[in-house]
Structure formats: structure tokens, C-alpha cells
């Protein structure tokens, strides 16, 4: 027989815990995690069962096997006899190359167009507005196809290529330029260049702190350029390095030698930069308008030119508004880069598709793609959030 006293005490204790908001929150989160884990286990188990029923191999062991296919563009040495892992590495480096160069160029384009939209010159402002409105309303895939068609159709064949100084050739096969050939002393020059970049960063930090304490300005830009250009040159001369060039030349129906900027790479980079730059232009324009015009009037009253007002007063304050949405546009540029498969550029997705078609291991291939893009996005978000905290206003305690 149930004791009514103990039953009533248990009910009261349960109501006591249930009325606790913290307890309910922990319980709901635990139930949600259990439900997600259950669904994940069901999907994984069902996928493995179906793969085994169809006698499809699972796991990432295929990465050690010979790839057996060529990749037209690679930043590191690659042969068809290399492994699938090496092929994925080449595709990843191609993706990172597009992402890094694209972010730099689209930032510059967006900054210029955003400022141009606020120009007092009627023609400049209208042209910038037309660019922004046109690019924001065109699908990015269509823009990539247009850029690729424009490059391949408007440029001449290799035998009729535009010739500059008998060493630079531009045709529908791409841009051919001389390639530098270094000897063993190149390691010292590259190491000195990395040291110069680090020294330039430290100079910038020192100059900012010095200006905050004394108000005295230090020419960081020219000092950094001097370090980056001067130190490697000194190392080059001191080590007696020998530098020669591999000049491109016509061989058959195409050029041989030198370095090539392919039409696929140029079209992909041009399309992504022009498309994303339109969105960044609007972000820059809104960030500048968010700064009170009284700041501009005060700076002009102190005798600063309009360019100095923009560079020293308006833009530093507008960064607090610009950085958060700018991060999203950087991520969009990276996530739009897989559209390279439409124009034949061998990025990570293109290489993974070839590997999937040869091995049949679609789950592993897609997992690699998702993991890589997730890692790139998280790293980029972390860096941008770190920079956003540096430029954010800090209230007093």
C-alpha cells in the first residue's frame, strides 16, 4: 500500500525541481542532445547498412591509392601516379589561392566603389551605383560563365597572341609570363622576406602605441615597404644568389615554359571579385554614413584635407560597422568558389568529384569537402572576430 505522506512529499519535491528554471533548461538540453544523437546514430547505421548491402567500400583508405588522373593547375608538384591524398591537397591549395587573392582584391574593389558611391561627382557616383545594382542582381554562376566566355572568345589564338617585350604573351590559353628560377640560396631570401613581413607588423604596433602616447605620427607604410623590399634585396646580394628566368616560347599549338595564369582561374577570380565587391561596396557606404558628419566638419575645421579626413577620421570609425557584415561576404566568397567546377577550374570540389567518380566513395568525398570548408569558414570567422574586437569601442570600468 502506497504511503500518502511519502507520495505527497515526492510530488512536492518534483514540483520544486520542475519549477526551477535552471533544472528545466538542463533537462531540455539533455533531451535535445539525446534526440540529435539518436537521429545521427540511425542515419550512420542505416548508411553503413546500405553501403554494405551494395558491396561499396567504406573508410578513408582510398586516400593512399594512386589517383590516376591529371590536374591542369597545381601549386605543388603533382603527377597522376600520386595518391588521392596528394590530389586533394592540390585541390585545397587551389581553393585557398582563389580565396586569399579574392578576399584581397574584393576588399580593394568594394572600398573604392563604396567611396565612389558617396562622391560629389555626379558621373562617378552614378557609375558606381550602376555597377553595384547590376552585380547584386545577377546570379554569380551566370557571371562566372560570362567572364569565362568573354576571356576565351575575345582573346586571340596562341599563334596570334598579344606579345609584350617578346616574353609576355596573352591569348585565349591564358597569360604567359617569365618564371623565376632560383638556386639554393633562395631559401635565405624567402626567410628574409618572412622576417621583413614580421618586422613590418611589429613596426606598425610600435608606431600605433607611440602615437597614442605622444601624438607623433610615424610613416608606417613607407617603412614597411622599405623593409619588405630592402631586406630580401640585401640578402640576395649578400648570398650571391643567381637568378634566371624561364621565358615562355611557342611550341606547337601552345606556349611552353614560364608561368601561366589560366583562363579558368582568371574567370573565376574576376567573377567572384566583381560579384562580391558590389556587396562590400554597400557595406562600406553604410559604414561611412554611420559616422556622424560632425566628425568630418571638425576634421575639416582643423585643416585636414578630405582625403586625410576619410583615411584618418571616417574610415577608422566606420570599421566598427563594416567588419561584422564584411565577415559574411568573405565567407560567401569562399563558399561560392566551388562554382569553379562549371568553368573547369580544378578546385577542391572538382578534384573530389573526380575521386568520387573513380572510387564510388561519395560519403567520404563529400565529408572531406564539408570538413575543409567548415574549417576554412571557422578560421576566417575567428580572425575577423578577433580583428573586430580590436577595433570595437571599449567602455570605461
Automatic annotation (TrEMBL):
One of the GO BP terms on file: amino acid transport
Keyword Transmembrane: yes
UniProt-annotated location(s): Cell inner membrane; Cell membrane
GO cellular component, one term: ATP-binding cassette (ABC) transporter complex
Membrane-spanning intervals of the chain: 25-44, 98-118, 138-157, 186-207, 219-245, 265-284, 368-387
Keywords: Amino-acid transport, Cell membrane, Membrane, Transmembrane, Transmembrane helix, Transport
Keyword Cell membrane: yes
GO MF, one example: transmembrane transporter activity
Principal cellular location given in the protein's record: membrane
Membrane topology: Multi-pass membrane protein
Protein name (Swiss-Prot/TrEMBL): Amino acid ABC transporter permease
Amino acid at each position: 500500500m502506497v504511503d500518502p505522506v511519502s507520495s505527497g512529499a515526492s510530488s512536492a519535491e518534483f514540483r520544486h525541481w520542475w519549477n526551477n528554471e535552471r533544472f528545466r533548461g538542463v533537462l531540455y538540453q539533455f533531451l535535445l542532445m539525446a534526440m540529435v544523437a539518436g537521429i545521427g546514430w540511425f542515419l550512420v547505421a542505416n548508411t553503413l547498412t546500405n553501403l554494405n548491402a551494395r558491396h561499396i567500400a567504406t573508410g578513408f583508405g582510398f586516400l593512399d591509392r594512386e589517383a590516376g588522373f591529371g590536374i591542369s593547375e597545381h601549386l605543388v608538384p603533382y603527377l597522376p601516379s600520386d595518391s588521392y591524398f596528394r590530389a586533394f591537397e592540390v585541390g585545397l591549395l587551389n581553393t585557398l589561392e582563389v580565396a586569399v587573392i579574392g578576399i584581397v582584391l574584393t576588399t580593394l574593389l568594394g572600398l573604392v566603389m563604396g567611396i565612389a558611391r558617396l562622391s560629389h561627382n555626379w558621373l562617378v557616383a552614378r557609375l558606381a551605383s550602376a555597377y553595384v545594382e547590376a552585380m547584386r542582381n545577377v546570379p554569380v554562376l551566370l557571371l562566372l560563365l560570362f567572364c569565362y566566355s568573354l576571356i576565351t572568345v575575345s582573346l586571340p589564338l596562341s599563334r596570334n597572341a598579344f606579345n609584350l617585350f617578346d616574353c609576355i604573351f596573352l591569348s585565349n590559353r591564358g597569360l604567359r609570363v617569365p618564371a623565376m628560377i632560383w638556386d639554393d640560396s633562395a631559401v635565405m631570401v624567402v626567410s628574409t622576406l618572412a622576417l621583413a613581413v614580421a618586422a613590418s607588423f611589429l613596426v606598425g604596433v610600435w608606431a600605433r602605441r607611440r602615437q597614442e602616447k605622444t601624438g607623433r605620427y610615424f610613416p608606417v607604410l613607407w617603412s614597411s615597404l622599405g623593409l619588405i623590399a630592402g631586406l630580401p634585396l640585401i640578402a640576395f646580394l649578400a648570398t650571391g644568389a643567381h637568378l634566371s628566368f624561364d621565358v615562355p616560347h611557342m611550341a606547337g599549338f601552345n606556349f611552353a615554359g614560364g608561368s601561366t595564369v589560366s583562363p579558368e582561374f582568371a574567370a573565376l577570380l574576376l567573377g567572384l571579385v566583381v560579384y562580391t565587391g558590389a556587396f562590400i561596396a554597400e557595406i562600406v557606404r553604410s559604414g561611412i554614413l554611420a559616422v556622424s558628419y560632425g566628425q568630418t566638419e571638425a576634421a575639416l575645421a582643423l585643416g585636414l584635407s578630405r582625403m586625410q579626413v576619410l583615411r584618418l577620421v571616417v574610415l577608422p570609425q566606420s570599421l566598427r560597422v563594416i567588419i561584422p557584415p564584411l565577415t559574411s561576404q568573405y565567407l560567401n566568397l569562399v563558399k561560392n568558389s566551388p562554382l569553379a567546377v562549371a568553368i573547369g577550374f580544378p578546385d577542391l570540389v572538382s578534384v573530389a568529384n573526380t575521386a568520387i567518380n573513380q572510387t564510388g566513395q561519395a560519403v567520404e568525398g563529400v565529408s572531406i569537402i564539408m570538413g575543409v570548408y567548415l574549417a576554412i569558414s571557422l578560421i576566417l570567422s575567428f580572425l575577423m572576430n578577433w580583428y573586430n574586437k580590436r577595433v570595437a569601442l571599449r567602455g570605461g570600468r
